[in-house]
Amino acid sequence: MADLDDIAALSWPKHTERLTIRPVTPDDFKAMWAIRRQEPVGRWMGAESADFGPFCEFIATPDRMGKTLVVELDGQVIGDLMLAPEDPWSQVEVADQAKGVQAEIGWCLDPAVQGQGLATEAVRELVRLSFEELGFRRLVAHCFAANEPSWRLMERLGMRREAHTRQESLHRSGTWMDGLSYGLLADEWRDAQDRG
Questions:
Q1: Residues 115 and 78: beta-carbon distance below 8 Å
Q2: Closest CA to 64 of 102, 12, 26, 15
Q3: Residue of 120, 96, 124 lying closest to 109 (CA atoms)
Q4: Can you say how many angstroms the Cα of residue 46 is from the centroid of all Cα atoms in its chain?
Q5: 109 Cβ partners below 8 Å, 6+ apart?
Q6: What tens digit of pLDDT does each residue of 76-111 get?
Q7: What's the CATH code of the domain at 46?
Q8: Is the pTM of the predicted complex or chain greater than 0.90?
Q9: Contact assessment for residue 33 and residue 49, using Cβ atoms and an 8 Å cutoff
Q10: What domain range is 62 assigned to?
Q11: Which terms are listed as keywords in the entry (predicted)?
């Protein structure tokens, strides 16, 4: 079982071949805002980032700060990741065994650096630390079906499409859009790593 305290207690930062991943600090807000307010990013985000003040208030809550990691390339913030522990559905008699065994993951990346495999590299590390260091048994990710780069990334990571909902998600444009949900089990991740 893992929670936000367990995420904070990990040894940070994490390094991949090209990236550094670490918990967000208020000093990162301006760079994050500059990325999220770009139309190709902002159109898919859960909250609009038009104004800096409300964006900071949104990100600065302890719960949101605890779930947010930034991605750096050569010391510059190029995006952020979400790691949100959650309890899956369970029957009442076994609910205590289901606490904190699953997490939702999410990401956004500056369009200026897209097309270089950086999102895949960052999210692959997020998946690794979720399973290997935090001990989650399952990860989930969700997106609008029209957000093809996002669901293609999920599939590159070996995530399985588990749901395609019809006009279930209301976009801020006023349009009801299809949604996609993906999942990945720790056992599936380990098997894929063993196969190399």
A1: no
A2: 26
A3: 120
A4: 12
A5: 35, 41, 71, 78, 79, 118, 119, 122
A6: 999 999 999 999 999 999 999 999 999 999 999 999
A7: 3.40.630.30
A8: yes
A9: yes
A10: 4-195
A11: Acyltransferase, Transferase
